[in-house]
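Reading a protein record of the kind used here takes little practice once its layout is understood. An example of such a record is reproduced below.
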Amino acid sequence: MNSKIWWYGSVAAIMSLTACHKPRQKTVPDSVAVTQPAAAAAPTKPLSDSTAAATELDETKFNATDIEFKYLTAKSKISFKSKDQNIDDANVNMRIKKDSIIWLYISKLGFEAARAIVRQDSVFVMDKIHAEYYAYSYEQLSKKFNFGLSYNLIQSILIGNMPIPKQPNQRFKKEKDYFMLRQQEGKILIDNYIGEKSRRLKKLMATDQPTKTSLTLDYDDFTELSNFIFPYTSLLKLDYQSAQDQQFYQTVFKIKHQKIELTDQKLEFPFVIPTKYKRK
């Protein structure tokens, strides 16, 4: 098993494996912190945008509904394909402390293969099979993928929230069954497509204008979760030009959530790099 498979798979999970409104759910009482991947609530009946609760819309006042939470746990399946790597149905346990930490535990055939932790200033990935680890700043990751990456972007991608909150002077434009909002964040141009009735992000297209690297996200299988509507399937495509050989490549990543829980219960994020591990 090639260590790069789990490195690229972990980074893709971090990038794909995507809140400013008052929550409509009941909070969960605090209890003892967990030390193993937590069990989570099973999804209820999936929703389509056409079946979501309709609201009388005013285009000038329209806004997206984001997922609000303190902690999130998920059990998921991921598939990943790039120019030289291919992963099918790897298992991922994910924990998020909102605006702080993302923790990933990646396994295949019942064995832990990789563990990753994403913080506001850095990303660490351990290859458990080959006793190696990787450490990156966001500046290094952005250079590697020719695309501006940040913690907030990664977190938003994983949970299906808009990466950049709508500003007071910004307006959605009606397009068929969507409301589209175009935003500029530095050198990145972002088009957000929001479901007319669900008010949830359905599609996102982002382009790094200097490099022409593009990221496309499609969300599906929207399901009721703690009075929110959560996308249980996400498909990410990253088209970029390699800095090494100047050729154009595409990375495709899919995540299918099986169980998700939004909770106030404090979680732990165990991540200790053994001294014998070599940095790559």
